[in-house]
Amino acid sequence: MSTERNSPAGGTARDRTPNAARRSEASRRAILTAAFDLVGEVGYARLSIEGIAARAGVGKQTIYRWWPSKGAVLFDAVLMLAQDPGGGTAALPDTGDLAADLGLVLRATVDEFADPRFSEPLRALSTEIAHDPALARSYAERLDGPLREAKKDRLRSAQRVGDLPEDLDLDLAVDLIWGPLTARWLHRTGPLTHAFADALVAAALDGLRGAAAPGRDGTGRRE
Amino acid sequence: MSTERNSPAGGTARDRTPNAARRSEASRRAILTAAFDLVGEVGYARLSIEGIAARAGVGKQTIYRWWPSKGAVLFDAVLMLAQDPGGGTAALPDTGDLAADLGLVLRATVDEFADPRFSEPLRALSTEIAHDPALARSYAERLDGPLREAKKDRLRSAQRVGDLPEDLDLDLAVDLIWGPLTARWLHRTGPLTHAFADALVAAALDGLRGAAAPGRDGTGRRE
């Protein structure tokens, strides 16, 4: 599943016998699940490797063998949850109605942010990233990158049917749709509701449909 | 300047003689400046009350008398910087050209985020807020609230000259313009450039100009 240096899959030759690999993968999943559950219960400040080990039923050394810090454990825990069972990133819904599909996705995110079991680990990861450029690079590569590609794929599909301009800056588009939600959640500056998700999608899409025009050289949008 | 319980202005009767008040205010500013400078140099994790006291040339007890934690000191330091000398919040530029005015403001923010002297304290405050609902409330009231009002004032001015729809959700508008910048900065998910600021303003304004239409009951925009 993972080819990271510290992961079980990259362990010693002894670990690579089928049974040992299965046991390693089971331990790994138990540790990540324990980390995710614990941070939702006690908060990141009180999360400890000891606590994770006790909850997962493994020794501390098993955790330290694979991860350098509690932040690294939590990162892999969030990564595991963001991936589908095959280890890939789930595609966004594509019914042909872009606003409806994005509305569904953003409403689901609003619901996740409202649930401490999800929002507490994500908040912890988010603040670790803010202070740790190395973790931020890892996040950008392994978590934000694949998620962002999935988002862009949905936007590209909209471009193909003429629902978004062909020359749209897709990174700007992703930021315009998802950034306000992230910012409001992190800074707690306003209510996170389904109505906000819907209004955000409507305003962002209006902006993206018009956004390509002003900077262009007068050729207009192609149909 | 401040009427907070822990601030010098709210001190004992003895402190209220003019000279003592001046000395208190001087100490307060020295402490806040020291906190702001230090966090930019050593990072929030290594910021300590002891270090702030040494840099400001005051005793630790002076700091503890006014603030409960280093997070609270830093919050007031950022607040001091966000206010003009009279203690108010500076208005946004209003030349009549909304896109140009917002472009100036967002480019200035991009420059601030690129400067560790500003971005490190802001990042520290931002993550404290993410984990501390009480500090988040204080932030929403004393810092984000006044800044948000200044932003809304500029948008209201645009509404008065017919440059933005009258029935715009101004909180959504502020989030759509500033949220993507905040999110990209905090999560380090893309380059923060003047070009990004300009593209963001263009896309957000297009969105806001069109955003009121779909949900309306067919009365159209009033001139």
TrEMBL record, chains A, B:
Residues the UniProt record assigns to the DNA-binding region sit at: 48-67
Q: Which Pfam families match?
A: TetR_C_11, TetR_N
According to the record, the residues making up region (Disordered) are 1-25
- Alphabetically list the UniProt keywords: DNA-binding, Transcription, Transcription regulation
Task: Tell me where in this chain the HTH tetR-type domain is found.
Answer: 25-85
Which is one GO molecular function term here?
A: DNA-binding transcription factor activity
Highest taxon above the source species: Bacteria
Give me the stretches of Basic and acidic residues compositional bias. 13-25
What Gene3D superfamilies does this protein map onto?
Homeodomain-like, Tetracycline Repressor, domain 2
Read off the PANTHER family from this record.
HTH-TYPE TRANSCRIPTIONAL REGULATOR RUTR, TETR-FAMILY TRANSCRIPTIONAL REGULATOR
Question: What's the protein called, per UniProt?
Answer: AcrR family transcriptional regulator
